[in-house]
Queue: 4 jobs
Job 1
Amino acid sequence: MAGSPDDTHFGYETVPLNEKQDRVDDVFHSVARRYDLMNDLMSAGLHRAWKDALVTAVNPPKHDAPFALLDLAGGTGDVALRVAEAGGASTRVTVCDINADMLAVGAERALERRLADRVTFERGNAEALPYPDRSFDCVTIAFGIRNVPRIDRALAEAYRVLKLGGHFLCLEFSSVDVPGLEAIYDYYSFHIIPRIGQAVAGDRAAYQYLVESIRKFPKPKAFARMIEQAGFRRVTFTPMTGGVVALHSGWKL
Ligand SMILES: C[S@@+](CC[C@H](N)C(=O)[O-])C[C@H]1O[C@@H](n2cnc3c(N)ncnc32)[C@H](O)[C@@H]1O
């Protein structure tokens, strides 16, 4: 953990809590236009399967029943567009992200996919959401919570804006738990990913931050406890791909 309560991590660096957000914002301003391509290259397309598992867990109604999803730190809308496509005509998705460049890419994608009437893109901070209490049926956050400086505040906000009976789902990088895979994963993370970041997105540091921030994120059981501390019940998690990622789930009951 970072030493002082006013400090946190930016990758392996210890930084003041109020500096982390600016550093994270710089990362995503820099990579926004290449973000989706990088995801495919770095994960060899696996992020699609992980996001499909998230969409299955969201389980938007296929018939014309109203369903409101908030996709926090939703960036270029990858999860939001998948949920909108999986759901019926009354499935509405709000993508909330702090970074205008990521949102701009997402809004263009929604227009291209003819989903702009059901998927909206709004700028907001996950730590202080611009929505009333009990507004959404489901809140998702994919590969986002690790970047938020005060995770406990973001979890409390997710809880606040969910309706009673609402579902919280968090997809995030986790801890590899398969003997043998760890060494390969570490080599790939520290030697290959930053090089792909340099070659494709022109930003090695952004992808060095990615691999370091993954190592600093709490282990899945500890993160499940944080979700419970925010008030969620029936908290569970499912590791995928040998623990490379985990899907955490909790309910507002
Ligand atoms: C790795 S991207 C994930 C994007 C998308 N969810 C996906 O899975 O493709 C992380 C996103 O978190 C956003 N983010 C970082 N801090 C945030 C905050 N405090 N509030 C809202 N979004 C934030 C970034 O701007 C970025 O778009």
Note: The pocket of S-adenosylmethionine is lined by residues 21, 24, 28, 73-75, 78-79, 97-99, 102, 125-127, 142-144, 147-148 (CB under 6 Å).
Job 2
Amino acid sequence: MKVTLNIWRQSKQSTKQDFKQDGKMVRYELDDVASDMSFLEMLDVLNEGLIKKGEEPVAFDHDCREGICGSCGVMIDGVAHGPEKGTTTCQLHMRSFQDGAEIYVEPWRAAAFPVVRDLVVNRSAFDRVVQAGAYISVNTGAPKDANAIPVPKADADRAFDAATCIGCGACVASCKNASAMLFVGAKVSHFAHLPQGQVERETRARNLVEQMDAEGFGNCTNQYECEAVCPKEIPVRVIADMNREFVRAKAVEE
Ligand code: SF4
Ligand code: FES
């Protein structure tokens, strides 16, 4: 199949001014794309051609290519991770596009995720949010039996649903407020539903929300765009969980 790509090219880190001054869309034609290629394999083919011509390849983030690491997200035709629901960019295949399609590819756009180069953004703001408390402290020792601490099935299911977040940032990129509440809500909800998460429950909720605000992410205004594009289909109810946990933490504090 043939495709025409319009890809954001940017040689240096964002300047935080008008992003249009930092780079531009560049048009490329590909004639030999197999419909079974993944979107990233199609970009590999483009890059091989660019390298052969002595041009700079397109920089894009990727690692697992199995939908589990969260590094590969880009905006495809204005939709985070492209047209298939519940699918990361690396798991998207070219058969999802028509022969002759014109496709627009851009990096995430959010003040807290500055563009490093081309389609690569710096998502270390998410790392700092996780460092603020998205973990449990445990005393090391002999491993315990997996069923030593019973967890009610309903709680295990809620925790597991939230734990599937891969930290890709699509929720932020798709939100008009660049809100990270689906991501942070997933972390808070995950631990709040497990017995192991109870010890640091209040400090976790407070610290994660404070770090999220400090990183410059916006507020949630119930647009539901985050839920629509999340490749792991994390539901917006985790944001309600986060808000409840934050209010609870404040009440316990006072
Ligand atoms: S909540 Fe979904 S969209 Fe947001 S970072 Fe996690 S997996 Fe990605
Ligand atoms: S490359 Fe790991 S989720 Fe896409």
Note: The longest strand covers residues 3-9.
Job 3
Amino acid sequence: MVSPVAQLTTRIAYGATQLPRVAWYVGHGEIMRRLSRAAREREASARPKPQTDRPVPERRQLFADMAKLFQQDLANVEAGIYPLPADHDGSWLKLIARSRLFFEDLPNVHRRRESGEMQQVLTEDMRGKRPAYYLQNFHFQSGGWLTDESAKRYDIQVEVLFNGSANAIRRQALPPLHELFAGRDQRRLRLLDVGCGTGRFLDAAKQAWPRLPVIGIDLSDAYLAEARRHLRRWCWLDLAVANGDAVPLRDESQDAVTSIFMMHELPPKVRRAVFRELARVLKRGGRLVVIDSLQFGDEPDYDGMLARFPQNFHEPYYLSYLEEDFGAIAKGCGLSHVRDVNAFVAKVMVFDKP
Ligand SMILES: C[S@@+](CC[C@H](N)C(=O)[O-])C[C@H]1O[C@@H](n2cnc3c(N)ncnc32)[C@H](O)[C@@H]1O
């Protein structure tokens, strides 16, 4: 039984860390939108505004749903599923440096958005070293997935996109893992995160289970280098460059597999190949947790916002993602679909291997 004082202390500590983060990233988003509007007006942009016939949520509704996510995050902490989260965004100096990197790249993003240019990373040098679909300027970002600057910019870009809730969304993969891990010796379990990027989810997982052996794989050397820096305080952690459609691990070797914000970046064929691999490396009785964007129909009021997203950002496979039947893909790989839980603009999909 937690004392009212301890509960109050937890709530104050939670608010004191999360509210300034939200304010910081919402502020960045507001400035970004104003700069983008001003640039379009200055240049009398001919690019049509994103269109949709589907409903688009009011900002008030977005913020109310975001508040629900944070309430759930705090409830998970209070239920002992994970400790008070530490986002480890870095010192003020680092935050300001990242903010600068973010704003410096906006004119380049704007130029690509206006011109539709998104193949700048498909250089002669890179051709054949990564799958062709991977060599694009996803989100119109400079360097695609390939450069150190892109890896340093990534987290601020994602947090701005999600109004400071990206880490809270990632943490929603922890409750279904907690159900699987509860009462078991964490040192004997194995977790694989596929498309781990800069390692923010693995950080949250290690905060919950510091002695859990975890592996993160990703196709980007630069993002993994950023993940290594970010995760350097943890042991029992392996990061490797590898393709999710050919995971370098034995069959049935992992108790849990996660993949966060990656499925929407993959062409449908690759999505299926990756799913097969995730199912292959899972042990019987193991669990796969996928977090990614909401899909059409999950929150009908949001459908227009989802439809407009790829008109603003280079997201070549997002529309196919919005209509993807993950239950059917999972079934085809021998996984059973346990549940989906919405988490603000994302959803947590849980699958078990019987
Ligand atoms: C949107 S980011 C998500 C990163 C991270 N999971 C997060 O929570 O932010 C997508 C990541 O998937 C990686 N990726 C894309 N295709 C991949 C593949 N076939 N195999 C492994 N990683 C891949 C990219 O390099 C990138 O780091």
Note: The longest helix spans residues 4-42.
Job 4
Amino acid sequence: MKTIRYELADGIATLTFDEPDSPVNTMCADWQADLTEATARVMRDAADIKGIILASAKTTFFAGADLKGTMRLKASDAPRVFTEIEQTKKNFRTLETLGVPVVSCINGAALGGGWEVALVGHYRVAVDNPKIQLGLPEITLGLIPGATGITKMTRLLGILGAQPYILESKLFSPREALDLGLVHELVSAEGDVPAALRSAALAWIAANPRPRHPWHEKDYKMPGGTPANPKIAAMLAVAPAMLKQKTRGLYPAPEAALAAMVEGALVDFDTALRIESRYLARLIVSPVAKNMINTFFFNMNAIRGGHSRPKGIQRYIPRRVGILGAGMMGAGIAYMQASRGIATVLEDVSLENAQRGKAYSLKITDPRVERGQMSPLEQKALLDRITATEFPADLKGCDLIIEAVFENRELKAAVTREAEPMLAAGGFFASNTSTLPISGLAKASTRPQRFVGIHFFSPVDKMKLVEIIRGKQTDDETVARAYDYVQALGKLPIVVNDSRGFYTSRTFGTFVMEGAAMLGEGIPAAVIENAAMQVGMPVGPLAVLDETALSLSVHVMDQTRADFAREGRAYEPSPGERLVERMVKEFKRPGRAGGGGFYEYPSGQKKHLWPELKARFEKPTLTWNLQDIKDRLLYRQSVETARCLAEGVLTSVHDANIGSLFGIGFPAWTGGAMQFIYGTGIEAFEQRCASLAATYGKGFELNQVEKDAIRMHQPVY
Ligand SMILES: NC(=O)c1ccc[n+]([C@@H]2O[C@H](COP(=O)([O-])OP(=O)(O)OC[C@H]3O[C@@H](n4cnc5c(N)ncnc54)[C@H](O)[C@@H]3O)[C@@H](O)[C@H]2O)c1
């Protein structure tokens, strides 16, 4: 055996999981074969065995499915996967029903398949360390806990009780597991942990020679009742509809999980396991699962592991960071910093403004204090970390200063010149601009190599993504330090090169402008908005344009026009941009903040589409194709992303995927704007683009350099 050590001594059979050349244990093909072999040995030695211990030789217990292997599966592999899952379950069942106690010694994280391995034990002992994560995160990867997880958790917690842990992938610590009855004993995290786990296991084995899982006991009743219980039945009548409202039919995994829970609860244990296997085998080879595993596992690990961070540069720990401008963004950044223990100087033109910015941290934390999630002392400490001031001199000694003043080049240049001398020796300067090219802003700096873009999204405390923009002269050390700063805030950094709109704003712009263009073609606004929702975007393009202000888009357009003119070029606005310009200049509809845009906002009522849109834009004779509308909204963004890769604005697929998901709300089922291309299939994507380009214009045209970039960056598993 390669991945499991089998030892029999003093009547105790120990199976120690220890996958070679891997930091963690996974359910790889070798492990599956080894489990069959280990189970056979247990059967052979049965007469001498008084108890079985499951243990890990790694720092974690067991990581779960072999996701690289999963990425290589084809649709035709489903029957083989079904047989393999069934074989693994058969091994689990053999060990559990041998008639001797089985104990799982959970020394570290047990996630997904790892938690399902832990559930083999009749008795589960875990280390009392709040950092250890246990549970079933499969749904977040487009999979279901189909290696006994659904069946056992439903039988342990009931249909209602198990839902958060299966359908919402809620994880739990060992102590929470103890409270839920999912773990039976905790051992201290201090001292010789493996010895403590083993001695707890041996003691329990000695005291419980013939244990059974609860669902095998004669008097077993499912907690909360089976689907036959009227209360459960009433809930189940609406549950699928509620789920569909959330998934919009785009995410098959939660629907399959709910079905497996309920169907499994109606039949005997073995049949329930088989139902689960069938759903899993179908899902695991599906495109959505691959898209989600690619991005939420592999791309996310690349971001966390610093793949886009320049190498060989010492880790930077932010200690004292200054912020210029205590408006919406500055106040949010100040809160994030203070909540992570970073001393913060928040400067604005008046003390009153600065204090208003600081008060935002009070507003955010007050409800937490009221709910008892934060002590008043902790809140005070957080607020004390923020110094509100009107004097730039108070920024003295900051190792990083971020400007978040109005989006105006001259003003940004002025505050840069004023504040930069306050930096501590070796410190660096950042701009939170959302549109102005960083290399241009860096001209105001005496050290442009230490000038970088750190683009937060609004609201800062909620949005996980931060886009780091490397200007023409920004050096590696500054990019690395910006990366470390963003990670210190617990956020996800992507690194992009300087260009108009960087990556996220530029690509997002294509989405909203495609929506506006369609309106200009005469397609009803409600159709466009609903098509966007149906394809999985969080909001329709017209609603977003209203929120961000149509007037802002026109302002950016005017600025771009002026920039182009200075370079001796003519700026050709897109059909969408022309429509937005008309809305603002001709119809005086600047957006929500300005009183209305594509929507009306009657006070105290729900917003609704501006009725005039119909008369002004809609063409009653026009026939439109819903699939085309949906495709245009997604394909346009993916084409722009491929262009960013081809131009070097983006340098990696993981930055593209994570940036599009967390920065612009590209739908999770696609795995992100580049994975959408790979998931669709490169040739199929290109063909569809060609046909969209023939009807809807250049926005869908891919040139050879872009096609090459798509191929060059395709991930290999
Ligand atoms: N609002 C967003 O969604 C968003 C998202 C990303 C980036 N940004 C960018 O962040 C920056 C700030 O945006 P905001 O929405 O927070 O703006 P805001 O208008 O809410 O705040 C700007 C603040 O800067 C202050 N200010 C002006 N001149 C100053 C000076 N000389 N010294 C110090 N402070 C000064 C103002 O008093 C105001 O409090 C802009 O560059 C914007 O493009 C905004």
Note: The CA atoms of residues 51 and 101 lie 5 Å apart.
